[in-house]
């Protein structure tokens, strides 16, 4: 009898597991102001959530920003987000029903992992605060190499767990998550409660769209059956 393939389900963090957009929008605006640059709009920040911090800042900078100002903005943003990690916990509650969805998927025997644009320290702090760290066998952040939409985090997770692409699913709320999954040759589920619209997620190539966290166990089960 042929051995069954290991099933691997990789979750994004911000916008998928936790609602951290308000804290991130405020921190990004403060960092830009401290660097002497105009604060980006909340909509502009939401558009780049999911990317690594450096990539997000680069996209938010005004056109033709001098290299020196761009470098200063990068440093300021990094310092602001590091300070957030050291200070009082930011408000980033779990989306209602997401804990139950994670537990239901784990109960099927699937391996769970994280692929996120968060820094590793911030990611671990978030999972610890929510009591979720032990649910995930592998954690991958932008600190580990190229960020989304590059496939590296997904491919590394597959390699580390012994799963294969055909039995791996990425769950995320941004087009960058979906593009990362496509670039890695795996399937994806877009979530409707995050930062990018279901229309944008579907256009990016999401195989399924989850309207609520309660939909995730069923969709994952159907895709991995």
TrEMBL record:
Pfam families: HAD_2. InterPro entries: HAD-like_hydrolase_sf (IPR050155), HAD-like_sf (IPR036412), HAD-SF_hydro_IA (IPR006439), HAD_2 (IPR041492), HAD_sf (IPR023214), PGP-like_dom2 (IPR023198). One of its GO terms (biological process) is DNA repair. GO terms for molecular function: phosphoglycolate phosphatase activity. One of its GO terms (cellular component) is cytosol. This is Phosphoglycolate phosphatase. It comes from Stella humosa.
């Amino acid at each position: 009898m042929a051995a069954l393939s290991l099933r691997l389900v990789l979750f994004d963090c911000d916008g998928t597991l936790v609602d951290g957009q308000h804290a991130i929008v405020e921190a990004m605006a403060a960092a830009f102001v401290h660097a002497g640059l105009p604060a980006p709009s909340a909509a502009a920040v939401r558009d780049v959530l999911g990317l690594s911090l450096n990539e997000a800042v680069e996209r938010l900078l005004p056109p033709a920003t001098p290299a020196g100002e761009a470098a200063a903005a990068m440093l300021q943003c990094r310092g602001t987000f590091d300070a957030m990690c050291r200070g009082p916990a930011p408000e980033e509650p779990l989306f209602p029903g997401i804990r139950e969805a994670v537990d239901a998927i784990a109960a099927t025997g699937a391996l769970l992992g994280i692929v996120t644009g968060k820094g590793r320290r911030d990611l671990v702090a978030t999972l610890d605060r929510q009591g979720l760290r032990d649910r995930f066998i592998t954690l991958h952040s932008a600190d580990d190499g190229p960020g989304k939409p590059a496939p590296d985090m997904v491919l590394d997770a597959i390699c580390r767990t012994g799963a294969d692409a055909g039995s791996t699913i990425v769950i995320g709320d941004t087009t960058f998550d979906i593009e990362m999954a496509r670039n890695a040759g795996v399937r994806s589920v877009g979530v409707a409660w995050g930062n990018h619209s279901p229309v944008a997620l579907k256009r990016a190539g999401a195989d399924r769209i989850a309207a609520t966290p309660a939909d995730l166990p069923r969709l994952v089960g159907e895709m991995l059956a």
